Amino acid sequence: MHLPLSAAAHRLSAASEPQGGIAGWAAGLVETFGGPGAGAAIALENVFPPLPSEVILPLTGFAASQGVLSIASALFWTTLGSVVGAVVLYGVGAVFGRERMHAWWAKLPLVKASDLVRTEAWFARHGTKAVLLGRMVPVLRSLISVPAGVERMPLPVFVALTATGSLVWNTVLVMAGYWLGDQWDVVGSYVGVVSKAVLALAVVALAGYVTMRVRSRRRGKP
């Protein structure tokens, strides 16, 4: 049985308070605006990756378990928020454009124009899979929208892939929060490990790339 809205909001605030600023901010949005508040939080999370979806989504699921909003509303609005945030970053990539990207790339040390050309060719071949699966990978789920905009992936295709991938990701985390109840914050611990692993792999890959470039230049190899 669901609690009355006021009682549910009170429990949600009490559960969120120990989590600090982001959880309290997200709880306030959900308590005040329900589904649209959760959608707004996720839209901002997409534009600003440091805002963790692994906190916002399970918290929204917990709110649903307390009767603040329904599961259907939670999934609809968070998926809509994901699409809106992704389209904003897609627009940034589209406005920045391919020519500006090449001009900016040419100014970077240790890189060549051919590297960017190869990256563009890879995205042309695998862009749909990258956008779809990237929506389910922490950190990458936000960043993947920019190259999609730069490469001018057809917007309807981008929106469809983003909505599908986001719905899967959102459903997993929202339902986890719903089932875990007061222990919804456990989800963030596990997803946070994945996020750190992704960042660590990116740093290692970047370090390896830079090392190879430096060695190549010292040896005079192309």
TrEMBL record:
Record's bilayer topology term: Multi-pass membrane protein
Domain of life according to the entry: Bacteria
Assigned keywords, A-Z: Cell membrane, Membrane, Transmembrane, Transmembrane helix
Compartment list: Cell membrane
Main location per the UniProt record: membrane
Domain VTT, first and last residues per copy: 51-178
The keyword Transmembrane helix is annotated on this UniProt entry: yes
Ranges that cross the membrane: 74-97, 157-181, 187-212
Family of this protein: Belongs to the DedA family.
Name by which UniProt lists this protein: DedA family protein
Species in which this protein is naturally found: Streptomyces filamentosus
